[in-house]
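Today's session is about reading a structure prediction critically. Students often jump straight to the picture, but the first step is always the sequence itself: look for stretches that repeat, for charged clusters, for runs of hydrophobic residues. Only then move on to the predicted structure, which in these notes is written as discrete structure tokens rather than atom positions. Here is the chain we will use throughout the hour.
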Amino acid sequence: MKLNKMVWSMALAAALVFAVGKAASGLVLDKGTDQQKLRKNIDKQTQKFAICVGKAALACEAAGTSGAPECDLTGDGMPMPGTVPAEAITALAEDLAKCESKLDLSKKGSDYAGIGCPGDCDAVTLGDQSCGTMASFQAYSIDNTYFQIEGLGAILSGVCGGDNTCFNTQGELGVKYSKAVFKCITKCENDYKNKKGNGGDNDTLANCDPNTSADANFQACITKAEGKAPGIIAGFRDGLDNAISDGRDDLYDEAAPVPCP
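Below is the predicted structure for this chain, in token form.
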């Protein structure tokens, strides 16, 4: 379930709400089926897209000096550019376009219903509302990634107290940490042998969530991910965990019965 879009001043609170638990009774897909392979490919594509967007945002923010989020990802005009020069804003738009150009969620198939109709293409109506098609789900995934990363920028500014050096250094650590956590969750959600978290046979967020999983194998992977980002501030790391888990939960753990058209 995704959050409704809101004004930038509430982005920090919105990002923290990602920690709220979700009901999960997921769609279990048999290993090796076309649907399972398709979902796994979508997972890999969307995580690469998120990392690409994160790097683009950091490159833009690094051109500023305020230590606060200044680069607009969602196109809503917030946050307002401050010390970031115009050329950095232009470069951001070009970088985001490149990120989007590499995203093709129908690359391995278009059976949107077969993977559980993930996503929430109605940001107003309570609950998850199916996107209807893979193309609509892709558009939703792009918009939601921008929104979540903007929210993470607010958390980063808060934990750094507005210090620009901290903002940029922690942002880079966040990218490294996120890449590793994405891999842990992918392994867990596609594990059918109970070696990486057993998410394949038991599709619930509880198995593959950095905050809630009691699986020793999965938590060992998360510990290694933390080792790739020494010095990352706990509050920012928690925000990353919540945002990443929210996105993977949306893909893998749609509540049954599946809300398909």
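Discussion point for the tutorial: Residues 1-25 have pLDDT under 50 and may be disordered.
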